[in-house]
Amino acid sequence: MYTFSKRLKITALSLIIIGALGWVSSYTSSHHLTLEDVKVMLEEEASHHGTTTHSDTEAHAATIHSTHDNTHQSDEAHHGDEHAEHVLHQMHNRPYAALYVAAFFFMMISLGVLAFYAIQHAAQAGWSPVLFRVMEAITYYLLPGAVIVLGIALWAGDHIFIWMDPEVVAHDELIQGKSGWLNKTGFAIRGIIFIAGWSFYRWISRKYSLAQDTAKDNRNFKKLFRWSAGFLVFYIYTESMMSWDWIMSVDPHWFSTLFGWYVFASMFVSGITVIALITIYLKSKGLLEFVNDSHLHDLAKFMFAISVFWTYLWFSQFMLIWYANIPEEVTYFVTRIEDYKLPFFGMLVLNFIFPFLVLMNSDYKRVPWFIIMAGIVILIGHYVDVFNMIMPATVGDRWFFGIPELSAVALFLGLFLYVVFYAISKAPLLPKGNPFIKESEQFHY
Amino acid sequence: MGASKVIHALYTDDDVLMSAVKAVKAEKHHIEEVYTPFPVHGLDKALGLAPTRIAIAAFLYGCVGLTVAITMMNFIMIEDWPQNIGGKPSFSYIENMPAFVPIMFELTVFFAAHLMVITFYLRSRMWPFKNAENPDPRTTDDHFLMEIPIHNNEKQLKTLLAKTGAVEVHVVEKEAH
Known about the structure:
The structure holds two protein chains of two kinds.
Chain A: H1 6-31, H2 35-49, H3 53-63, H4 76-122, H5 132-139, H6 142-156, H7 166-170, H8 173-178, H9 184-214, H10 219-246, H11 259-284, H12 293-324, H13 327-339, H14 341-358, H15 368-394, H16 403-424, H17 437-441
Chain B: E1 4-11, H1 14-26, E2 33-35, H2 43-47, H3 54-80, H4 97-123, E3 144-149, H5 154-163, E4 168-174
Antiparallel strand pairs in B: 1-3, 1-4, 2-3
Helix pairs in contact in B: 3-4
């Protein structure tokens, strides 16, 4: 049994408090901004950049929800006003978007682990039962995490999802055409169905898993197998729809048919990485003595493989859109390459090149500090991935990794650690009733 | 060198074979070769073989494949007959790189895979029309064979092998090569 250590509890709670304070202060300061402040700021920027302001303005109008008709040669002063207002909106959006990115990132880890866990049961895997309690603990965060994400989405409204603004929809035929799907009621109902389904599986799988510990036969194990197989079908549909709702709809004009898979790859690799990191942490505390090098090796293989899989999907999405060069599709990447060059290409280094080179060698996959190093880089990379998906549509080129982003990460990291380690302390770490537990304990390659 | 005597011990299970190999190694006997119908995990470690270097070779072959792909596509699509790719006639390799990535990937895998197999064959001294070295055809079906050279210790080896669960133990004259 693991006991939730006081030091970790204090660390988690202080992360939550620091994060909450930092975020609230950035929220209030951005809300005190007025149009006048923004105009002064823009003028200062203009004097730095010289003559580039006008083309900047044009890039904006083209890339961010191009809903207003731009009469380019209209009154310069009027144009300036409109631009300043636009920038003001973006700066108001930033704390919301920062909070949403961090909330989604930690929720996605939990959801990825839930899918991984269900796959282990559906496949009746023999190697992984020793890790089940770690996975169950991570998925304990799913319900609070997902409720928070949905809550932020509905509370922030048009600060993140432009289609939630009736004014915008009234002038936008494309969004009007999609309003059968993209409306606030539908969004909320779908969100509740997703969360209810995932949480139900998480609840029933934990119940049978614990019941199996003391059971005399394999009935719970068999039931768990059926529920897991069923859940995977539910999961792949709802995960895909969740990714359209919660992420893709921030750019309501744009769509990509493999977006669900792309988000899935991201959550899967982040989830597996967190399983590996927490396993190594618990092992270093002298717990999980039944987890050996070969289990870590397999987790690291998954980290390596799914990183490559993520890159494959990222590239498939990018190349088709780049090749076809259709304006309404390619604008997605134009924004990211022009305004987000560093995070956009940096993400490829963090999520692909680094783990690819570090985890390629078979021996390195068994060295804990190699896994930790690669794991932290992968997690940062996938945070940046979510950042790249949300920010361009909400804050445009007014992005930065500053107080709102960092404190939102601290807030949810603290919450995640608190919930997950609380859940780890709730059950024995060895699911001793699992019929494959002997095989798993002796697993070696 | 003339003919030498070797002992052949046959097993019908990979787990029994593994523990036999460990028992024979514990007695400090040299195992010349083990013939198995399928790869047995951990056998190389139990036999004390040096770790394989095929992974390093594969990495280098992959690099060769990547280089071939880049040089080839650059010559074909950019230099020799410049192509307008996706309505972007920039005639620069780097700007058109996304279109070449699938080829770069495929040739990397192609070179790594094929050259690795060829390397493996050569390193194992296997080439077309070569006579099989396999001492007992049953090792291609459901038997495992361990070959140990004899140095005036025939009796000792036979009792040891019988204890490890061998189903058959023979002594054979072997042509040295």
